[in-house]
């Protein structure tokens, strides 16, 4: 009876106390599944310094669910002291039974109350295990939602140049992954508290009988801890190194199965080529992963054996002490369970702490991402954008080059746009036309010079207020996979639910004719991503985008190739109303079609980062310069 009870007790303690260790190992294995190419291993000082990344994350956890954190922590404290309490009560019960059987002494008058207490403690442990599982699920969901929202908010504030930097883009992609994957860190912090209190309580019980036995257990666990942390860092290094390769694989995966690339994929026979590139990358990552896993297996077997020696060495010592009469059966039961629990608990504490330190390494990009501040932002006390604009916009000796690149895209540009003037920009590809637009809209700041609005530098105005006065349609405008009404409404969020203004914008830009053909009209979802969506042709999408820009009711209308996807008839319809669309506004028009730009009040010709010519269409043709040459080349194709 006693051996069977002892066996069941040991299994129960292993389950309740050792569960965190098993869970911790699972977490480590899941993380190591991501690792790829090894880097030089970090010093312990570097790994410990990574723990400084944890407090900001803990503040995020507290912010997203303070009540869940408090209740979960209290539940973990209670759960952590249940095993030692259960073992202590069991020791008293078994010793009472032993004396009753062998010495015929009466059972203590509290005996059955102790049995009931043992049952209650076991039930409490099982119940709180379910409660903790619930709290972990709720906290994980709240944290994931909170951190994902924060990443979206912060990303929307960053400079456009950040998105054009591959290194930063890699960092941002890692931050996105870390934002959701670091839910494990939150759970591990809770497990560390629980495992630490549980291990300490059991260790005190062991130390009460034999301090040297406790020291022996700890010494046997430390090598396994050091081994785990060593390989965990190699995993982080490998994961860091492989971010670019994984991005390439993701791109190839999307390219090989997207609607946009399907036509060329079939006609050009690109399937085997893309699959081959994907396999080369994935095979290399697999080789690196398996190599690290093999090394971990070899060392892990040896280190695990040390931990097993620690447990069974202590267990054998306790049995010997019982055989020679130094310990009672109840004490044997207590110590056997305490050794099993403490051994697993100490390992769990070390492993969980190591896991947290390694998870902290993965937090680097997330914390660094949030630390990046936009350089293009409003100054304190920034000015409100003028309405109406009275003096217009002026570029004064404006030059621009991308960060880290000395080549100037624009060099010493000087130009002026008067109120209600329509200006067109023309030039060969790569001459800086779109860069002028991005500077004018303050998506970029000039490297040199100034851009003035009513005589005041753009940097002095409130950024959000300035953007409200600018309506833009880029050549690569976004196809929002939303309803027609929402596609137009995003141009001016304040009017997103104003059907009258949305329809007026659609009518003005000829988008109404497209919308009338759709089954659900303005409520029709567009695109093929979601069920019930209807895709549009390029020209139809462009009419929706024009309506979006027009709805903005801005003082400056910027049209970057606004009719590039329209056929000749549709283009003519749009520009028949060009004067009406831009009435009372400044307009900046970029186009390769001279039938379009000739309607502007003034045409600027960009070449080699500067303004080579400017004037009206007829005058520029008469002058016989670069504009005339480009016009003749285009006109010749229609003869």
Descriptive notes:
The chain is of the alpha/beta class and 639 residues long. Among the domains are: 14-369, ABC transporter transmembrane region fold (Up-down Bundle); 478-553, no CATH class. It is 64% helix and 9% strand. The protein has helices at 2-32, 44-49, 54-64, 66-103, 111-157, 160-163, 166-181, 183-209, 211-241, 243-255, 259-267, 271-323, 329-362, 364-371, 433-440, 463-468, 484-489, 499-508, 512-515, 538-551, 568-576, 578-581, 594-597, 617-623, 626-636; strands at residues 393-400, 410-417, 422-426, 448-453, 456-457, 470-473, 556-560, 586-590, 602-607, 610-615. A 6-stranded mixed sheet has the order 6-7-8-3-9-10, with helices on both faces. The chain has a 4-stranded antiparallel sheet with strand order 2-1-4-5, covered by helices on one side. Strand 4 and strand 5 (456-457) form a beta hairpin. The longest helix has 53 residues, at 271-323. Residues 1-42 have low confidence and may be disordered.
What is the topological layout?
Layout: H1 2-32, H2 44-49, H3 54-64, H4 66-103, H5 111-157, H6 160-163, H7 166-181, H8 183-209, H9 211-241, H10 243-255, H11 259-267, H12 271-323, H13 329-362, H14 364-371, E1 393-400, E2 410-417, E3 422-426, H15 433-440, E4 448-453, E5 456-457, H16 463-468, E6 470-473, H17 484-489, H18 499-508, H19 512-515, H20 538-551, E7 556-560, H21 568-576, H22 578-581, E8 586-590, H23 594-597, E9 602-607, E10 610-615, H24 617-623, H25 626-636
Parallel strand pairs: 3-8, 3-9, 6-7, 7-8
Antiparallel strand pairs: 1-2, 1-4, 4-5, 9-10
Helix pairs in contact: 1-4, 1-8, 1-13, 4-5, 4-8, 4-13, 5-7, 5-8, 7-14, 8-9, 8-13, 9-12, 9-13, 10-12, 12-13, 18-20, 24-25
């Amino acid at each position: 009876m006693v051996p069977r009870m002892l066996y069941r007790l040991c299994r129960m303690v292993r389950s309740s106390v050792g569960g965190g260790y098993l869970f911790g190992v699972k977490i480590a294995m899941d993380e190591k599944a991501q690792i790829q190419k090894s880097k030089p291993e970090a010093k312990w000082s570097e790994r410990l310094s990574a723990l400084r990344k944890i407090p900001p994350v803990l503040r995020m956890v507290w912010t997203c669910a303070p009540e869940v954190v408090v209740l979960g922590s209290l539940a973990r404290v209670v759960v952590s002291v249940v095993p030692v309490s259960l073992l202590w009560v069991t020791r008293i019960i078994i010793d009472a039974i032993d004396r009753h059987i062998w010495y015929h002494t009466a059972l203590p008058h509290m005996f059955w109350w102790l049995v009931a207490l043992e049952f209650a403690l076991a039930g409490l442990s099982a119940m709180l295990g379910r409660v903790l599982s619930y709290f972990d699920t709720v906290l994980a969901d709240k944290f994931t939602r909170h951190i994902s929202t924060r990443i979206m908010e912060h990303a929307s504030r960053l400079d456009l140049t950040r998105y054009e930097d591959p290194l930063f883009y890699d960092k941002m992609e890692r931050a996105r992954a870390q934002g959701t994957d670091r839910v494990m860190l939150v759970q591990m912090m809770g497990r560390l508290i629980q495992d630490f209190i549980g291990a300490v309580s059991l260790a005190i019980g062991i130390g009460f009988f034999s301090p040297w036995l406790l020291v022996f257990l700890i010494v046997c666990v430390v090598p396994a801890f050091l081994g785990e942390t060593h390989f965990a860092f190699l995993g982080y290094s490998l994961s860091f190194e492989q971010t670019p390769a994984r991005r390439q694989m993701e791109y190839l995966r999307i390219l090989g199965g997207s609607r946009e690339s399907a036509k060329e994929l079939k006609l050009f026979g690109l399937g085997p080529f893309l699959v081959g590139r994907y396999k080369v990358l994935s095979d290399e990552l697999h080789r690196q992963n398996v190599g690290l896993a093999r090394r971990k297996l070899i060392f892990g077997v040896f280190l695990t054996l040390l931990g097993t020696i620690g447990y069974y060495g202590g267990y054998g010592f306790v049995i010997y002490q019982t055989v020679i009469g130094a310990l009672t059966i109840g004490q044997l039961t207590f110590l056997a369970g305490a050794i099993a629990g403490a051994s697993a608990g100490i390992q769990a504490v070390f492993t969980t702490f190591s896991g947290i330190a390694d998870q902290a390494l993965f937090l680097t990009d997330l914390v660094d991402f949030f630390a990046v501040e936009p350089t293009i932002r409003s100054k304190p006390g920034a000015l409100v954008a003028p309405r109406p604009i009275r003096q217009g916009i002026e570029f004064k000796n404006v030059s621009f080059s991308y960060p880290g690149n000395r080549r100037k895209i624009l060099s010493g540009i000087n130009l002026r746009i008067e109120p209600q003037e329509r200006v067109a920009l023309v030039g060969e590809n790569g001459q800086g036309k779109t860069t002028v637009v991005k500077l004018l809209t303050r998506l970029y700041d000039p490297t040199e010079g100034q851009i003035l609005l009513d005589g005041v530098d753009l940097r002095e105005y409130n950024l959000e207020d300035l953007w409200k006065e600018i309506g833009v349609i880029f050549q690569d405008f976004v196809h929002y996979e939303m309803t027609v009404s929402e596609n137009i409404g995003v141009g001016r969020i304040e009017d997103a639910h104003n059907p009258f203004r949305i329809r007026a914008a659609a009518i003005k830009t000829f988008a109404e004719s497209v919308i009338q053909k759709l089954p659900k009209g303005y409520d029709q979802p567009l695109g093929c991503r979601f069920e019930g969506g209807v895709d549009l042709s390029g020209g139809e999408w462009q009419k929706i985008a024009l309506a979006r820009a027009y709805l903005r009711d801005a003082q400056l209308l910027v049209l970057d190739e606004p009719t590039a996807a329209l056929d000749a008839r549709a283009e003519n319809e749009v520009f028949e109303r060009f004067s009406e669309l831009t009435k009372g506004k400044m307009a900046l028009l970029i186009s390769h079609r001279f039938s379009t730009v000739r309607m502007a009040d003034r045409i600027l010709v960009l070449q080699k980062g500067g303004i080579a010519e400017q004037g009206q269409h007829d005058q520029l043709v008469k002058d016989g310069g670069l504009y005339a040459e480009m016009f003749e080349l285009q006109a010749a194709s229609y003869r």
